[in-house]
Amino acid sequence: MSREKGNQAEDRADEFLLNLGFSIVERNFYSRFGEIDIIALKDEVLHLIEVKSGLDYESAIQNITPKKLSRLIKTGHVYMKKNSLDVDFVYDAVIVTPKKVEIVENITL
């Protein structure tokens, strides 16, 4: 996927999350392990969010591989340490398709 398409998906995800009552803390946090697309806060819980887009739900969600998830978790630990945070947090995914945007909570289970 091109960076432009990725940005469009992240913009749609941002809007979706704001409508659900999240506040966006940061976008595109990078570490040597990878990237967290969106970091958001809701009800005093920090959400570290991977955004995936595709023509349908299945094609998008299948792009969250075990390797990608491992990198996301490592990057999350870097973010928490860099910002000296000691808060509840969770890893989520936002799936963006042409017709729908939805959240998949706690993708590490």
Question: What does this protein look like?
Answer:
The chain is α+β, with helices and mostly antiparallel strands. It has one domain (about 5-105): Trna Endonuclease, Chain: A, domain 1 (3-Layer(aba) Sandwich), CATH 3.40.1350.10. The protein contains three helices and five strands, in the order αβββααββ. It has a five-stranded mixed sheet with strand order 1-2-3-4-5, with helices on both faces. Strand 2 (about 35-40) and strand 3 (about 45-55) form a beta hairpin. The model has no long low-confidence stretch (mean pLDDT about 95).
Instruction: Identify the CATH architecture.
Output: 3-Layer(aba) Sandwich
> Domains counted in the coordinates: how many?
1
What name does CATH use for the topology? Trna Endonuclease, Chain: A, domain 1
Main sheet properties: 5 strands, mixed
Oligomer state equals single chain
